[in-house]
Design goal:
With about 130 residues, this protein is mostly beta strands. It is built from no helices and eleven strands. The model has no long low-confidence stretch (mean pLDDT about 95).
C-alpha cells in the first residue's frame, strides 16, 4: 500500500503562484509514476502532469504546459507541482496519484485508471 498526502493548496489571485506537495509513504519503492489530476466543480477529473520516478521524465496537459512544473525529490518521497501564472480556470481540487504497476505508454499517463493510489486532494482557488 502507498499513502499519499497532498498539501500546499489555498487561495491565490490570478497571475500568482502556488506549490503543491504530495508526500508518499508505505511501499513507495513500488511507485513507478506519480501524477497530478484536478477536478473542478461540475466537471470531470482531468490530468494535469505526470513524472516517472526513475528517470524524471515528465508529461503535461496542454492546458498547463509552460505554466506548471512537476518534480520529485526521491530522498523525501515527495512530488511537487509548481503552478505559475495561475488562472481562474485552474480552480479545482488537485489530487496526487501513484502507479505501482509496470511501465505505461506515454499516451496513457493521462488516464486515471492507470493509477493505483490516490490522495485526498487539496483545494486550489484562483480569484480574479
Amino acid at each position: 500500500q502507498v499513502q499519499l498526502v497532498e498539501s500546499g493548496g489555498g487561495l491565490v489571485q490570478a497571475g500568482g503562484s502556488l506549490r503543491l506537495s504530495c508526500a508518499a509513504s508505505g511501499r513507495t519503492f513500488s511507485s513507478n509514476y506519480m501524477a497530478w489530476f484536478r477536478q473542478a466543480p461540475g466537471k470531470e477529473r482531468e490530468f494535469v502532469a505526470a513524472i516517472r520516478w526513475s528517470t524524471g521524465a515528465t508529461s503535461y496537459a496542454d492546458a498547463v504546459k509552460g505554466r506548471y512544473t512537476i518534480s520529485r525529490d526521491n530522498t523525501k518521497n515527495t512530488v511537487y507541482l509548481q503552478m505559475n501564472s495561475l488562472k481562474t480556470e485552474d480552480t479545482a481540487v488537485y489530487y496526487c496519484a501513484a502507479r505501482s504497476r509496470g511501465p505505461v505508454p506515454p499516451g496513457l499517463l493521462a488516464v486515471g485508471t492507470q493509477y493505483d493510489y490516490w490522495g485526498q486532494g487539496t483545494q486550489v482557488t484562483v480569484s480574479s
